Structure formats: C-alpha cells, structure tokens
Amino acid sequence: MSEKLVHVVSHPLVQHKLTIMRMVQTTSSEFRTLLREISMLLAYEVTRDLPLTYVEITTPLTTMSAPMIDGKKITLVSILRAGNGILDGMLELMPSARVGHIGLYRDPQTLTPVEYYFKMPPDISQRDIIVVDPMLATGNSAAAAISRLKTLKPLSIKFVCLIASPEGIDLLSSEHPDIPIFTASIDEKLNEHGYIVPGLGDAGDRIYGTK
User: Fold this and answer.
1) In terms of Cα–Cα distance, which of 118, 200, 175, 123 is closest to 154?
2) Count H helices, E strands: the chain?
C-alpha cells in the first residue's frame, strides 16, 4: 500500500463531530446533520489540489485577474445508499457539481458487491470524479465502483469516506494503487461480519433510521 495516497483528515472539528456520530445514543436526525457538516469539511481537503486558471473580472473598484477552477466541474459519485449522506454535504459546498450514482449491495454470504444501478453524466471523460461512501469496510464495493468508473476514462478519481478499516484500505490500494483515499479515521479492524470496529454501526441504517 502506498501510504502517500491515504490522507487522514485530523482537523479537530472533523474528529469532534465524528466522535458524536459514533455514540449509540445519537439520533438519526443528529447523525445526518453531523455527516453533512463533516462532508463539507472533507470536501475542502479532497479539492485542495484542483487546478486554477485566472480570468479578468471587474470589482466595484477596479478590474483584476482572479483565480477560478479550471476546466470542467467536479462529478460527485455516490455509492448507494449511504453515500448520499456525504453527497448532500458536498453539494452544499459545490452546488454546480454533476452527480452520478452507483447502486451496489453486499452479498451477505460472500461480502462481494453486486451492481444494480449505474447512472453518470454524459461527459464524464472530461471530469474529475470524487467517489463517496461513509464506510470503507471490506473495500470490495469501493474497488468495484472504481473499476466500473475507470471504464469511462474520467480525468481523475478520488475516494472519500468517513471511516476506513485497514483491510479496506489494503484491498482498495492493492486493486487501485493510483486512487487517493481521504478519510476521517482509520479504525482498528473488521469483525467476522465485515463491520468496522469500533466504527459507528451501519451508516445507512443510522442515516435513515432503518434497523
């Protein structure tokens, strides 16, 4: 695994909000709000290296050359359904971003992903993609999603999650060593059911109150 491609966002606000999200007594409403807030903070980090170009503008006082993001806008790709929790927060910061969705569910026996939905903007080959999913557990779903996206030949792909397991990072980095991973925490391990420990439970269930 190339450690330089794994970025842990250790900002105090991110870590504080993540701790509250982990608590079993945190309600679905609170969980969604915190996830949206953390997602905006993660968006700052994952877009830090976006290329800029300079354009001539007029302020109320004068004209100047000012920086703007160069080229096509970002495409945010949510791995359904839990990825929508991160998507909502990032869209608040980047409302002009295009959005794609990948529907994957984890086979309960094999823990391998099965695709049931795939919808992307038509000009994806001219765009930078940020794939979002709260949990990088086994890594199988993220790896499958990125493999599918690579067939469309986007300009770049990054992966953003809230919590990652060492096993998930190893698998994703092994299958896609070129893909940067941004996360708020690398937790201890996976349990026998493929859940991250200590983690925060099933992110989709906690977002939507489905238990």
Assistant:
1) 123
2) 6, 12
Domain spans of the chain? 3-208
Q: Write out pLDDT tens, residues 153-185.
A: 999 999 999 999 999 999 999 999 999 999 999
| pLDDT 10s digits, 77-98 | 999 988 999 999 999 999 989 9
148 catalytic per annotation = no
**The pLDDT value given to residue 130:** 97
Residue 19 DSSP SS3: helix
Closest Cα to residue 131, out of 170, 76, 172, 93? 76
CATH 3.30.70.100 correct for 3-208? no
CA distance 89 to 41: 9
Q: What is the pTM of this model?
A: 0.91
Name the active-site residue from 106, 128, 133, 206: 106
Given 48, 205, 206, 210, the catalytic residue:
205
